[in-house]
Specification:
By secondary structure, the chain is of the alpha/beta class. It has 18 helices and 17 strands.
């Protein structure tokens, strides 16, 4: 389900002589539009037509602009796509590289190119054209974007109209780019380049699985479906074991908070517990990762408006990223012990649903007064993060579509990060930002802590800030269940499903699978 259909390879051969439907070449912006040796060689192959076309179209190579020319049978590649890299001295970070790559690979898809050869950012040249950037990391970023940027989910589309004309039928045979070759210079460290690309390929498989779990309809992606997916994963990954706890087992553990949220649904709740140990050698650290797993959120008795409910199948996006990560864990082989926990259930209204005014007793023993059943994610996290902390990790990270307030604060650009440990917060920020999954740290002010830690007749109140500091309010609630364990909370309600515009990884109106790439980087950093 989560395999890439596109094959991505690193090649050191002469790119001009290799067959392809499309050759993508980067070109820097400059006043005279001086051409690189590669572009000059392509122009020579095309009898000077490329430079003529550049002049006719007044192509300036501004960042992410493009120009397409047919080879007219004069070369092994059918078309050449020039992609503008902007000014060389201004190309300073991997985010710019990702954006340019996304533009190029989406253009290739629109041109219906099945085989694509790429030369970008001077990786095939000894001239070290790219400023202050690491070649293996550039290659990794190109691979990740190339394998994610054109995501489509067509599982439930019915058979296409058989009465279309032959030309349309021919176009419909295109099912996406099948092969991408990234050309690099032989003088570069090919082994390290290929290693980074292999990590990229594995990581994107995890992202794609996360996306498919999120986009599946809620009548399919139930708590049981997540548990069955977890079972299939555990069979395939070396060093990975799995426990799935049902309602009765969760009751024995005293998970009164998690089970209360699940009560309104006919779907049985599932607590999914992955455990990974290094295949060889001693673990350097023990890290716990917890994903919010509400497979559909109606709001419960505090019912959401109909429009706000439409995409609430994505309220398990945190759980999906955890499952996606664990599906590739033996491919990236972190030198770490990992506990991954998901409390999966639906939040539904019914005669048995939990109510505003109810008092719940969590696994930790803390009691909580419910004043909003639509603030259910923090209630399930109370038990799942406490359960994870009972496994004695060195650090814990939870990832959750927790609050609408984070969307107001940060939009679709960045996830909100809140923490009880500045050092861990910096580590996670560094890893996620390097991965291209932006995070922004928000404070956890004591001023708002009393709003969740002082219920009227219980220890806590699940939604107590009166509309102020909503994201902090949710995080401060979860914080009460991690004790002294270094902890980071990631609120991904804005980044899990971009609606306004394409990102470099994700076409708009599609799930992002946000978190997998960042977690991979964090695990790598901890293992090094």
């Amino acid at each position: 389900m989560n395999k890439n259909t596109t094959k991505f390879s690193v090649i050191t051969k002469n790119i001009i002589e290799e067959k392809a439907d499309l050759l993508i070449v980067g070109i820097y912006e400059n006043k005279k539009l001086e051409l690189s040796p590669l572009v000059k060689a392509i122009d020579e192959k095309l009898n000077g037509n490329l430079t003529v076309y550049i002049e006719e179209e007044k192509f300036e190579a501004k960042i992410s602009t493009s120009l397409v020319l047919s080879s007219l049978g004069k070369a092994n590649f059918k078309k050449v796509l020039l992609i503008g890299l902007g000014k060389q001295q201004e190309l300073k970070d991997l985010d710019q590289i990702r954006k340019i790559t996304a533009s190029a690979i989406r253009k290739a898809d629109s041109l219906k190119a099945e085989t694509v050869n790429i030369s970008l950012f001077g990786l095939d040249s000894a001239s070290k054209e790219t400023v202050n950037l690491n070649a293996p990391q550039i290659a990794r970023s190109i691979a990740e974007v190339s394998l994610l940027a054109n995501y489509k989910f067509e599982k439930y589309l019915t058979t296409k109209d058989k009465n279309k004309d032959s030309e349309t039928d021919q176009n419909d045979k295109f099912t996406g780019i099948q092969k991408i070759n990234l050309f690099v210079g032989a003088e570069l460290n090919e082994a390290e380049l290929k290693k980074q690309v292999e990590i990229a390929i594995a990581s994107t498989e995890g992202v794609l699985l996360a996306r498919e779990l999120i986009i599946e309809p809620p009548n399919i992606a139930t708590p049981t479906y997540l548990a069955e997916t977890a079972k299939r994963i555990a069979k395939d990954q070396k060093g990975l074991t799995l426990k799935v706890l049902g309602k009765a087992e969760c009751e024995k553990l005293g998970m009164g908070a998690f089970l209360a949220v699940a009560r309104g649904s006919v779907e049985e709740p599932k607590l999914i517990h992955f455990h990974y140990k290094p295949i060889s050698g001693k673990a350097k650290k023990h890290i716990a990762i917890v994903g919010k797993g509400i497979t559909f959120d109606s709001g419960g008795l505090s019912l959401k408006p109909a429009k706000a409910m439409e995409k609430m199948k994505y309220d398990m996006a945190g759980a999906a990223s955890v499952i996606g990560l664990m599906s590739i864990i033996s491919k990236i082989e972190p030198q770490l012990e990992i506990t991954a926990v998901i409390a999966a259930c639906e939040n539904m209204p019914s005669g048995d649903a939990y109510r505003p005014g109810d008092i719940l007793t969590s696994m930790s023993g803390k009691t909580m007064e419910i004043n909003n059943t639509d603030a259910e994610g923090r209630v399930t996290l109370a038990d799942s993060v406490f359960y994870a902390c009972e496994q004695k990790p060195d650090q814990i990270i939870d990832i959750a579509t927790l609050t609408g307030a984070i969307v107001v604060s940060l939009g679709e650009t960045a996830a909100g990060l809140m923490s009880n440990n500045p050092e861990l917060a910096e580590e996670v920020k560094k890893a996620f930002n390097l991965a291209g999954e932006k995070v922004w740290e928000l404070p956890l002010y004591e001023d708002y802590e009393s709003s969740v830690t002082k219920g009227t007749i219980a220890d806590m109140l699940n939604a107590g800030s009166g509309g102020q500091a909503g994201s902090q309010n949710g995080a401060l609630f979860v914080k009460q269940f991690v004790g002294k364990t270094p902890w980071v909370h990631l609120d991904i309600a804005g980044t899990c499903w971009p609606e306004k515009k394409d990102t470099c990884f994700t076409p708009k109106n599609n799930p992002a699978g946000y978190g997998v790439l960042g977690f991979v980087r964090h695990l790598e950093n901890l293992s090094s």
